[in-house]
Amino acid sequence: MPNGQPTLYMTNLTNYLIEEKLMKPLHSLYNTNLIMEYYRFKRAMMESPFEHHALLIGYRHLRTFDGRLYSLTSKCSILLAQDFAHNAFTIVLNLNSGHGNSLYVNMDGTAIVIYPEHKLLPFLCFLGASAGLFGTNDNEAGNEWMLPDHSYEDSLQEFIHAWQVSQQGKC
């Protein structure tokens, strides 16, 4: 072996180990959303595959039935979930309604208004019968952003806008 070749080999091996085995995993960790990973892990480890929960976190963040996390950008009332198959329930988040933020819940014709204090609120709905910002609850993450007209949207802003519940066009 010529002089310098083992040194070049060791340098290349060292660069490979540092870049591929150390820096790439650290870089991917930097781009990880820890809240999303926590709920994904919790769902995989502790929840039954047949139960799907959506979460409203404060008034600005939510997790869909299929585990997708995002922040709300709307300042209007928005439909979180509704049973479009049997009209058994409707859940609307009222933002800045004059009386503070509230949840409007209608179940089988009985309506209540809840004024939570920025807590984590879990919701459990019927499999495959609901739609809204909480998603479709059908165990298919690919169709989570379905619009009221059954089309799909890639833009978060447009998705949230489509589920706004406007009061006389003021939104």
Structural write-up:
27% of the residues lie in helices and 26% in strands. The protein has 171 residues and is an alpha+beta fold. The strands form 2 sheets. Strands 4, 5, 6, 7, 9 and 10 form a 6-stranded antiparallel beta sheet that branches. It has a 4-stranded antiparallel beta sheet with strand order 3-2-1-8, with no helix packed on it. The radius of gyration is 23 Å and the shape is elongated. The model has no long low-confidence stretch (mean pLDDT 75).
SSE map:
Blueprint (H helix, E strand, L loop, with lengths): L4 H26 L3 H13 L6 E5 L3 E3 L5 E3 L5 E7 L5 E6 L7 E6 L2 E5 L5 E5 L5 E2 L24 H7 L1 E2 L6
Antiparallel strand pairs: 1-2, 1-8, 2-3, 4-5, 4-9, 4-10, 5-6, 6-7
Gyration radius, rounded: 23 Å
Distance between the termini: 76 Å
Q: Main β-sheet: number of strands, strand sense, barrel status?
A: 6 strands, antiparallel
Coarse structural class: alpha+beta
Average predicted confidence as pLDDT: 75
What is the number of E strands?
10
Instruction: Compute the number of helices.
Output: 3
Proportion of beta-strand residues: 25-35%
Percent range of helical residues: 25-40%
Q: Would you identify the regions where 5 or more consecutive residues have pLDDT less than 50? A: none
Q: State the order of secondary-structure elements, H for helix, E for strand.
A: HHEEEEEEEEEHE
| Overall spatial form | elongated
